[in-house]
Fold this protein.
Amino acid sequence: MTKKKLKFTGKNKFKFLTKFAIGEGKGGTFSVKGRLVSPFNNPGDEFKIDVMFFEDDRWEHTLNTDECVQKRQFKNFKSDMIIRGDAQWSQDYKQFALAKGRTRLWYVAIADCEGFTHLNTPSMPKIEIEIEILNGGSHFSEEEAGLPTINCILLVLLLCIFMKSTISFFHQFKREKSYESPLLILIVAASSDLFCVFLTVVHMFGQSYDGQGFYVLSIFSRLSYIFAQVCMVWMLLMIGYGWTISYKSVDEKDIYIIMMLFVLMVHMMITALTFVDDDEHHKYHDFSGVQGIIIVILRLILLSAFLYGAW
């Protein structure tokens, strides 16, 4: 389930809402409703907008068309949504589509080509849209099918790695009486990854129930994943510059603090870039678009730093 609040401004009469894949041979059920976020003018006022559904092969033509009315011509089907001035939900508009021959990616957009809403009355409150799409009865888009099971398996594997690393660290600590070991950083990284996958599993099981899950958990899951990467990259850089290879004890800690701050800064930039265009129509993974190119460059900088240290 997707919820969005939007406002038509300037010449932008057409707005993308969400995308969703329907698996081959499966039926997709679309359910959309809308309302104003707060009452406006007379309670009896009504405003008409279009909710349109585009199959993937028609979406490219839609993007290459400038005029709102012309974009509407490429729709597979649409619903005329009536937004009420009293901020009550509109009726639930439903559509059904069957994916024949292959998996179909569907795009949902909203348009006010005639300018009935904010373009005519700028003081109108935002419109809230709620969309529920089922992929053969499942709340998961086709590319996400099976991910809860995979994440459960990953959770068990990470738990084993965490336990193995912890046991090895304690044995090493008893033997050498020193906590300066890559195993300690590995334990921190594994626990962070473990926490990340656990939150993802909880979020996905919630999503399988109501289509929404727990968005806050998904955010903390991504942050935990980034923290685990910071630990692993920092550990590799330290090893690349000789820790545990040419010397065991870290005497000059300033350089490693600076190294940690550098790695942390890079990953903060990576985290911000992954959120910039999250859930946009053109984004299918974190490495797409201009943001993706920047992320790849940042990763290559870290790799170069490691290779230089190893050399």
